[in-house]
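Summary of Year 1 activities. Much of the first year was spent building the evaluation harness for sequence design. The harness presents a backbone, in tokenized form, and records the residue chosen at every position. We chose the following record to illustrate the format because it has been used consistently in internal testing since the harness was completed.
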């Protein structure tokens, strides 16, 4: 969607993110996930019934992006390197499509027809995904150019069913679509030492990896050569299988569900925003702008900075109903009726700075200052969720924010300082 004023401007947008049915999670077997279920919910609420989705979601982008990105969005884009699609393929998930003339149910693997191509008719809407409930452990292994927010050069998802003694293995970024390594699955089903309780033999793991590599059809590109991607698929498959076999591949227990972006009352026309406690009303035409453009260009709120406009740098981080997001990736209409907070609005009514702002100044975490408002919002979000974070948790909590000046150490020290207050 051309939100960056580079190309054709879309007309007014219809926001479906608050449709309750699209945000619903229905427990059972399979688990039914509405198309608007976000990666954050998959990570925090679905680790027990769907561990492979939670594991894949953890590797995707930053918290700012995971709070907004959805299953339906990933399916509609059909990126062959998409982590969550690889997990869905490995799990044998099915997709519900609906139109005025009826509905369709097809596997996610069949829905993905090519790079950025899918079997979605012009009058159809992606409604939900049905994912078999986990009957065993899972694992997800990925390699990319960065330690955080990496787009996969190769990734492998493994799902084990202990009762049926079967495996699902999906591979990303190594074919025109995420693929299932069926020959490798058959080998695991037939020859794995089910019920033995021991580790897998290195030779067996190597054979499985070889079959996974054979299932790929990679092309050389900027993220790696054809030979490298095949080798990576074999190595990652072996690691993921061994990790799942040891039953330590599941993430931590799920957090309790939280309601999101469910405020009613937005008028059918016009755009009403509440930013840092102030009410604003704008013409309908701005519903198709990004929230960042509206904040800076229409409302003069300049704390969120305009840099990458791709959700990569975090300089435009804001909180929407308490959850951080990259304002450059949020259509303004999705923030209507919500509470939008920026770093400029964190000071108390007497003008005293927020403890995170004070700590960043005291620790010397500010140089040019361009990225600072985004770091403030990300750090405040982290400390709300994890009041006493470790250094590793701080780095993970801030991995969606880039700084070109400080080297990050003073910013990490500032978060530690703020946590003690």
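For this record, the design step produced the sequence shown next.
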């Amino acid at each position: 969607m051309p939100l960056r004023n580079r190309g054709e401007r879309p007309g007014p947008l219809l926001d479906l993110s608050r449709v309750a049915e699209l945000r619903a999670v229905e427990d059972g077997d399979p688990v039914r996930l509405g198309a608007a279920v976000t990666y954050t919910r998959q990570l925090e609420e679905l680790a027990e019934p769907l561990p492979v989705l939670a594991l894949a979601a953890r590797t995707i982008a930053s918290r700012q992006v995971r709070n907004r990105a959805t299953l339906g969005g990933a399916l509609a884009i059909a990126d062959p390197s998409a982590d969550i699609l690889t997990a869905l393929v490995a799990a044998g998930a099915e997709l519900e499509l609906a139109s005025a003339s009826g509905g369709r149910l097809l596997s996610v693997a069949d829905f993905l027809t090519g790079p950025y191509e899918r079997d979605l008719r012009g009058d159809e809407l992606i409604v939900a995904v049905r994912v078999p409930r986990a009957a065993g452990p899972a694992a997800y292994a990925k390699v990319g150019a960065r330690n955080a927010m990496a787009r996969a050069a190769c990734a492998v998802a493994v799902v084990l069913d202990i009762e049926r003694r079967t495996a699902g293995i999906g591979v990303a970024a190594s074919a025109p679509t995420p693929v299932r390594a069926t020959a490798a699955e058959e080998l695991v089903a037939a020859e794995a030492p089910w019920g033995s309780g021991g580790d897998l033999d290195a030779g067996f793991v190597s054979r499985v990896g070889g079959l996974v590599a054979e299932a790929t059809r990679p092309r050389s590109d900027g993220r790696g050569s054809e030979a490298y991607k095949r080798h990576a698929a074999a190595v990652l498959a072996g690691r993921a299988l061994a990790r799942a076999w040891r039953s330590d591949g599941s993430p931590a227990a799920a957090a309790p569900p939280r309601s999101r972006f469910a405020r009613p009352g937005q008028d059918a026309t016009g755009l009403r925003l509440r930013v840092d406690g102030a009410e604003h009303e704008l013409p309908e035409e701005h519903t198709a702008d990004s929230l960042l453009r509206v904040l800076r260009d229409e409302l003069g709120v300049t704390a969120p900075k305009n840099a990458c406009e791709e959700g990569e740098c975090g300089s435009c981080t804001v909180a929407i109903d308490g959850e951080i997001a990259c304002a450059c990736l949020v259509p303004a209409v999705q923030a209507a009726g919500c509470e939008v907070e920026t770093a400029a609005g964190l000071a108390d009514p007497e003008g005293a700075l927020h403890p995170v702002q004070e700590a960043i100044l005291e620790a010397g975490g500010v140089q040019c200052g361009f990225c600072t408002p985004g770091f403030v919002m990300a750090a405040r979000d982290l400390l709300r969720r994890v009041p006493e974070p470790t250094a590793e948790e701080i780095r993970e909590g801030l991995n969606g924010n880039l700084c070109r000046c400080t080297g990050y150490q003073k910013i990490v020290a500032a978060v530690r300082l703020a946590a003690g207050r």
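The first helix runs from residue 20 to 23. Quantitative recovery figures across the full test set are reported in Table 2.
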